[in-house]
# Entry
Amino acid sequence: MKKIVLSLVMAVCCAMPAFAADGVLKMATTTSTADTGLLDYLAPIFKADTGYTLEYVSVGTGAALALGQNGDVDVVLVHAKASEEKFVAEGYGVERFEVMYNDFIVVGPKDILPYSEDAKATLAQVFEKKLNWVSRGDDSGTDKKEKGIWKSLGIDPAQNPNYKESGSGMGASLSMADELRALILTDRGTYLKMKSDASVKLDLDIICEKAPDLLNQYGVIAVNPAKYPAVNNKAANAFIEWIVSDKVQKLIADFGVDKYGQGLFVPNAEK
# Structure
């Protein structure tokens, strides 16, 4: 595992046990880590292991990084690698660590399109046939991924009269797609959770999956204390060390298996 860059404040606290601490860790993260229930599962374990209370806001990746850029949070957990690397390069974050991944899938009404493992071909058909499509349109990691595919095809999806933007998180966007009988790009974890929830109507099936360009990698970054001295860098570093540890990587791997028959995330922190 790469060595985590610690602040000077952290360096002088060597007399304390590695994770012994009180206080609050403020995090900005994506809607998928909240909608799947992952953070609600991990938060009490993090509290028990470190003494820190995790307080998080779940928004799109763009909005989460903006909170970090404003120094409003201590750490970000997001999924848009290019934007994350830019965040660090511009001095807002200390260092990026990979944590886990899942994948994006295209879902929609059954039989609206043939099953495919080619994301570009699927989106091209959506545009050519002017099918109903819901985009998040919120600068989230999911939105960035979708826009990247459209761009690679040389297509302006807004030229499809049946293209709509929700401006909402993943769960709300999936519900909107269901209501409109539309297709949508979603992370697999949120889809599986909603699909298995008896209280949620979601009559959408997997149309496209397993495409190499649908990988959904998550990274964690401490907000730079040199730029924002008020952030809780000690808590941020404790969280990063904790979430990439063998213990927590195993917890992430097992999350969802008992309920969905498969994990919702695949841990891949560097060792």
Summary: The chain has twelve helices and ten strands. The first helix runs from residue 8 to 11. The radius of gyration is 19 Å.
